[in-house]
């Protein structure tokens, strides 16, 4: 089949002009459908993180131990995250070069990385002593910091995600 | 399905809603929202975080009723933790939704997808009210070891599915032929 797309000049254009990227971009339903799944996945991620962070801040769910709350929420946070990452990657392929020049997209990726680092630090450092404060309504400073940082970073991710939709075409 | 929504939107155009939408566009608050570049995106972010809070609360309660999570606490304890978040979350969602409606009245009110979303929302609210009432009384009578029956579990998951359908319609408002 003849291609109507120009020769790609960089990796992002190669992704955008690939058969996957062009199929999603040309389809009437693919982009909105992927976006819909992305939204359902991301509210699951944000909502379950909110439940866990409120517990770490001692603001809600204090009847649960931290370990129990983590066991209840974390599988759904991860399931939602994997689904959001897959649908997000597919959305990205359809407009890769446009996203790569959009500052909100780049900020979103940066904030996601910071949220990941915050989670890793909490898990590998602060969480080591969890058995000492597991059932306490008063959390150590490190746990409170991780929860606050997590909420701020994820709010930033949601904001940038929405901002991308309003600024596409401004920067290219 | 596209034809159904197109027909519905065509009909909406003939109702009082069109004049109503035009009137909203003349209000000062509409001007504030549309002349600020970040007005609508921020309203949408508020809407999304409200949905996150209420949907996750619904999900956690459903998981407990299905014996899939939260088993360290009784159903009444889990309900006490999550039910206020469902209802206050819903109020937050409606308030932020009103901001979006006020900013873009024609795009929303003259849009079949929007009204199907509103009907789904009403149905979900009524089912949730009846469901929470029946679970509360059954769980109180049944004590800490109460186990939900098959019908109760199915209703809980139906509510989760309805939430997903509402979110899907919310996203497709932007793609409907208006």
From TrEMBL, chain A:
Keywords: Membrane, Transmembrane, Transmembrane helix
Name the record gives this protein: DUF6644 domain-containing protein
Occurrences of domain DUF6644 (ranges): 35-166
One Pfam family this sequence matches: DUF6644
TM region(s), chain numbering: 37-56, 76-93, 105-125, 145-171
Domain of life: Bacteria
Coiled-coil ranges from the UniProt annotation: none
Organism per entry: Erythrobacter westpacificensis
């Amino acid at each position: 089949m003849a291609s109507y797309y120009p020769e790609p000049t960089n990796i992002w254009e190669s992704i955008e002009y690939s058969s996957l990227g062009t199929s999603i971009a040309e389809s009437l339903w693919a982009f909105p459908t992927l976006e819909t799944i992305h939204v359902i996945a991301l509210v699951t991620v944000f909502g379950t993180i909110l439940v866990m962070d409120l517990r770490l801040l001692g603001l809600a769910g204090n009847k649960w131990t931290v370990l129990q709350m983590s066991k209840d929420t974390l599988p759904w946070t991860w399931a939602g995250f994997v689904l959001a990452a897959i649908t997000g990657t597919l959305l990205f392929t359809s407009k890769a070069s446009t996203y790569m020049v959009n500052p909100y997209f780049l900020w979103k990726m940066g904030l996601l990385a910071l949220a990941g680092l915050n989670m890793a630090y909490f898990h590998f450092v602060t969480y080591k002593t969890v058995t000492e404060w597991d059932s306490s309504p008063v959390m150590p400073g490190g746990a409170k910091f991780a929860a606050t940082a997590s909420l701020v970073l994820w709010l930033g991710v949601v904001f940038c995600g929405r901002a991308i939709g309003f600024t596409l075409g401004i920067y290219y | 399905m596209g034809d159904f929504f197109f027909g519905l939107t065509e009909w909406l155009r003939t109702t009082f809603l069109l004049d109503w939408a035009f009137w909203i566009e003349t209000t000062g608050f509409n001007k504030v929202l549309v002349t600020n570049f970040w007005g609508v995106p921020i309203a949408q972010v508020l809407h999304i975080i409200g949905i996150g809070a209420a949907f996750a609360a619904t999900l956690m309660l459903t998981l407990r009723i299905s014996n899939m999570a939260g088993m360290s606490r009784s159903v009444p304890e889990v309900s006490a933790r999550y039910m206020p978040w469902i209802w206050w979350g819903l109020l937050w969602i409606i308030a932020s939704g009103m901001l979006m409606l006020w900013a873009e009245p024609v795009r929303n009110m003259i849009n079949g997808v929007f009204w199907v979303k509103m009907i789904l929302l009403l149905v979900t609210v009524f089912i949730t009210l009846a469901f929470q009432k029946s679970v509360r009384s059954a769980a109180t009578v049944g004590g800490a070891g109460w186990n939900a029956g098959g019908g109760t579990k199915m209703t809980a998951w139906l509510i989760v599915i309805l939430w997903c359908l509402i979110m899907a319609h919310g996203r497709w408002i932007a793609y409907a032929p208006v």
